[in-house]
Amino acid sequence: MSSTIETINEYAFSHCAMTNLTIINYCTTISNNAFANSNLRNITFPDSLVSIGSLVFVGCPCENITFYSKFKIINKNALTNSSVKYLYLHSIELIEEEAFYNSSIHVVQFPESANLSIKRYAFSYCDIDEIILPHGTENIARFAFRETQMNTLSIPSTLKNIVNWTFAGCQVKNLIIREGITEIPEFYFSLNDFVHVTLPSTLKSIGRYAFMWSWMNEISIPAGCNVSNNAFKNCEKLKNITIGANCIINKDAFILCNNTENIIVSENITYTDMVFLGMKNVSLTYTGVQDVTDTNATLNYQQIATNVNVPQNYENDTFCTIPITKKD
What we know:
Blueprint: E1 7-8, E2 20-22, E3 29-30, E4 42-44, E5 51-52, E6 64-67, E7 73-74, E8 86-89, E9 94-95, E10 107-109, E11 117-118, E12 127-132, E13 139-140, E14 149-155, E15 161-162, E16 171-177, E17 183-184, E18 193-198, E19 205-206, E20 218-221, E21 226-227, E22 240-243, E23 248-249, E24 262-265, E25 270-271, E26 283-286, H1 295-304, E27 308-311, E28 318-319, E29 322-327
Parallel strand pairs: 1-3, 2-4, 3-5, 5-7, 6-8, 7-9, 8-10, 9-11, 11-13, 12-14, 13-15, 14-16, 16-18, 17-19, 19-21, 20-22, 21-23, 22-24, 23-25, 24-26, 26-27, 27-29
Antiparallel strand pairs: 28-29
């Protein structure tokens, strides 16, 4: 290709019979449907490329693509219904609506740092091995990852505009919320299938219904976190709960988590009302050394446990009038 071409026009290689293409440095834009229904299996993109248009790869057998340091924009439906499985991004600023919607994408490797925004339905209905969003990601729109399947999802601390239902219907084996994030808004992770969730120590607030009907096996609430009403409602696979010191747990925070087996609680937890409705015969472990006298705390613990495990240096004979077992 000529080194003076800045734009590859719409349908430029549509239904093209050749299988290999190298785009010479100087080209900045690839327009809509540029490679649609072609036989191109191997496409080498230039360092100069800035953006790709809609439906660029539809019907194209190319599976592996790399965009370099000047690249900024993946436009709406750019890879929708494409065969692209492996995408390597050296730079990126914007992923538009439905960019990967129902595509074959399996691996997306982001740069370590990027000022990134992701629009609605960008990765909806994809099956992706791993999404590690780069440091600098600020905006993820509602439904951006709706019904997406991932082995690992890592969310950076730079996220600013956090909206609910972003991950509705996701299936994620390992959700990592990085240190620095302070708030999870209402409904943010509800109706999801998580196996393991890692919350950061910096987290200060979990909104209403934030994890409602999610399917993780365990959760550890960091110290000083305020857990809102119904935050973990109907988490029926939740077996193990750990609540850090100085947390505030609001009404029905864990309502109908009926299969919970183990709860570990620390000192100075404030319960504003009853929070464990539906639980019973839970193995309760208290990590403090002095009995709890707060009425709401006492009522909550009496509801779920008939015996409490406490440390050897625990100073009282019972815990909230419940018999104790001292353990190392």
